[in-house]
Write a structure and sequence with these properties.
2 copies of one chain form a homodimer. In chain A, about 40% of the residues lie in helices and about 25% in strands. In chain A, the strands form 4 sheets. Chain A has a 6-stranded mixed beta sheet with strand order 2-1-3-8-7-6, with helices on both faces. Chain A has a 5-stranded mixed beta sheet with strand order 14-13-15-16-17, with helices on both faces. Chain A contains 14 helices and 17 strands. The C terminus of chain A is likely disordered. Chain A folds into 3 domains: about 170 residues, 3-Layer(aba) Sandwich (Molybdenum Cofactor Biosythetic Enzyme, Chain A), CATH 3.40.980; about 80 residues, 2-Layer Sandwich (Alpha-Beta Plaits); about 160 residues, Alpha-Beta Complex (Maf protein), CATH 3.90.950.20. The radius of gyration of chain A is 26 Å and the shape is globular. The first copy, chain A, is of the alpha/beta class and about 425 residues long. Chains A and B meet through helix 1, strand 2, helix 2, strand 13 and helix 10 of A and helix 1, strand 2, helix 2, strand 10 and strand 13 of B. Strand 14 of chain A pairs antiparallel with strand 14 of chain B, so a sheet runs across the interface.
Chain lengths: ~425, ~425
């Protein structure tokens, strides 16, 4: 990759060193940094200990041009980030009465009286710019120190994300106006092996150079990134054709850009087509429906779903015949096709997706190893059914995740095909 | 908390600095460390850069007695952890032909020829003990350096977890035989506010001291930890009565111990009672069924489920009357009770759980704010239905998660009550 500004993330909070919670804020920050071509070189999590936070910040300022701290800006004794930053930089910390008033008014607007302890949130590090928080009482702070930039953000994800957009994004946008800024754009690809993606984009590498393109793979979901350096115009001159070439080379497996999630894209396509889907799930146990309902407004595209874990329910709710189950087994083309047809005929939806598989660790046979999954997509016509069979690698969780990914992608492909049929004669390729 | 040995985790891998993946290995490691009373003071993620890994390790060896590195033990050029560790410690790195043979045999046992590149995995740091990996080709390494302990584990979670059990646990167990070892035990508590837990255990604090007990809260799920220092007998003498007192003080909201998940406990209770459950979900979109099917063998306790997102499906699949929906709205006691009854009467299950709520951000009214959720649990008798209404704080994701948590907890409470009825006259309190 082309080299650029270096960033470090430092998440503060003893709860993030426990056994249940991870620093998810860093994913949102990483996405924004990536968009502006900033290299995230390290991230760390540290407890609510003032000296430890100060030491960690000091070390990161040796390594990075930009250090982002999250958490520890609350009003309690445990909230040490302000004091630790002041200590690391050798600066003072003063309560700013104007900010106290600001926070007091914020509480008043909710009909509450500000507890005196919240005065701590108005402690400003000498030389810092205070950053407004539209979603909570903890303001952030922004500092420059020996040519490095430091941001303090609250740890609550909703507040952190709001402040990231309000304050970090404009800062990065201003930096990116420089002539040596790096810009990255991302394509998202569903259900292709990494090696297949590499194969398809071989010629694009030749045109633009290996350093300009990166392929980042996770199971069932691949990100293809193009980078360019220069002024905004110079970057666009490189990236516009590069991304178009990549998209063409990879084909319709590209489902989105940037941070788009597959379930969001499927929801949007369903809404655009005025179609609704119903799910019939066995091995995924509700995961496909759960993903389709993560996005607000999902009632527009999801009618509902069946989780038919038992033979009995497959028969009772979806009308799969007992002899079909007994002859072919629940993990078979015959059963999954009947599941999809049954779901479609029982609900007022245009499409039905059904899955049945062996997520493991138990349940495998010689003919059907762990990871064997059958998919059927029924509709929009009464007799249209598409079947697919795959053997996924990995453990129970991975098989379930990849199954949900492929199920969503089958819906997406179907909607693209239907769109292509409607606009037949259009020059754009939309089927595999 | 009582002070003890200090640990640092260092996860290696550029993919963990991206926008999609987090270092989840650290959660399993944190749980094991916690069990043996080791304080995890910091964790960090660093890319595949030899110098950067070496620098980070050097810094952590100044701070911690035990440093756990995960990732970067593969056979490719990107796998730098071995070389970086050798560099940080100023030691050599030699290919050990005996280990090459070992890895070659491993490949042979899968009917494959070892690629020559895998010789790199047999590079041993001078003075290191090699650690067998039962689940993959990358051996780990264990070192002592100036009184510090260092473990190198692979990054693949399945392999890391296996090696953690095989190699780190015995090491920690041996350490804990010392007279100054710290032991921690954990109770898990569902659906109580943190303040309520604190209130209930006030007297236990008085008996054992504030430092001996910690309350760690996440939404809908709380961990209460007791710690004790000394020999194994001394620790048991303190912890046995302390944990019993905590359990009694908190009451039946305690659902498990250690790392048990609520969905696992519910599955076990259902299995023990030979009962099965069916779900009828609206706002959670399948999340309750999905959680109940995460555990292998879940077909024993989950019959299946309905995701009835639309009015139409609530009527069609669950028999909720259109006039009930129109009079009371989908988020109401009347509708959720009919959903549960409908699910129960349509499936061969003993229990049915139904939820309907407003996950947000849209859909709220003056009377029903975002976070309003109705629950109904029907069964085991035909006419038994329990209803509950709650308003959860937080965003869409949090409301959905807390809703699934409370739904699972209602099933758990019901099973405890049924157990208590069966064994009526028993001295143990099992209902709230």
């Amino acid at each position: 990759m082309i080299c650029t500004m270096k960033a470090a993330i430092l998440a503060v909070g003893s709860e993030l060193l426990g056994t249940e919670r991870l620093d998810t804020n860093s994913l949102a920050l990483a996405a924004l940094l990536e968009r502006f071509g900033v290299d995230l070189i390290v991230k760390s999590v540290i407890g609510d200990d003032e000296q430890a936070i100060a030491d960690e910040l000091t070390a990161r300022l040796q390594q990075a041009d930009l250090v982002l701290l999250t958490g520890g800006l609350g009003p309690t004794e445990d909230d040490r980030t302000r004091a630790a930053t002041a200590r690391a930089l050798g600066r003072g910390l003063q309560v700013d009465e104007a900010w106290v008033e600001h926070i007091r008014k914020l509480f008043a607007s909710f009909g509450r009286v500000m507890p005196e302890v919240n005065r701590r949130q108005a402690e400003v590090i000498d030389g810092a710019e205070m950053l407004e928080n539209r979603r909570g009482s903890a303001p952030g702070q922004k500092l420059e120190h020996e040519g490095r930039h430091i941001f303090l953000f609250p740890g609550v994800p909703r507040e952190m994300k709001g402040m990231m957009v309000d304050h970090l994004e404009p800062f990065l946008a201003a930096q990116s106006k420089s002539e040596s800024a790096v810009e990255r754009r991302t394509l998202k690809v569903a259900c292709l092996p990494e090696s297949e993606v590499e194969q398809r984009i071989k010629e694009v590498y030749t045109t633009y150079g290996r350093d300009a393109i990166a392929v980042l793979a996770s199971p069932g979901d691949i990100r293809v990134q193009g980078s360019a350096k220069g002024t905004a115009e110079q970057r666009a001159e490189i990236l516009d054709p590069m991304m178009a070439d990549l998209r063409r080379a990879i084909g319709p497996a590209v489902y989105g850009e940037g941070e788009q999630q597959l379930e969001e894209v499927v929801g949007e396509l369903l809404q655009a087509a005025s179609m609704r889907v119903v799910t019939a799930e066995s091995c995924t146990g509700g995961l496909i429906a759960e993903r389709l309902t993560r996005t607000p407004g999902s009632s527009a595209w999801l009618e509902g779903g069946f989780v038919t874990y038992s033979y009995g329910l497959k028969t009772l709710l979806l009308g799969v015949k007992t002899e079909t189950l007994e002859t072919w087994g629940a993990v078979s083309e015959q059963v999954v096709v009947d599941m999809a047809r049954g779901a479609l005929s029982r609900c007022r939806s245009e499409l039905a997706i059904a899955v049945s598989g062996i997520a493991g660790p138990g349940g495998a046979t010689d003919e059907k190893p762990v990871g064997t999954v059958h998919f059927a997509l029924a509709g929009p016509g009464e007799h249209e059914v598409e079947h697919r069979q795959v053997i996924f690698p990995g453990d129970r969780e991975q098989v379930r995740r990849m199954t949900s990914q492929m199920a969503l992608d089958m819906i997406r492909r179907k909607l693209l095909d239907l769109g292509a049929e409607l606009s037949a004669g259009s020059a754009e390729e939309t089927s595999p």
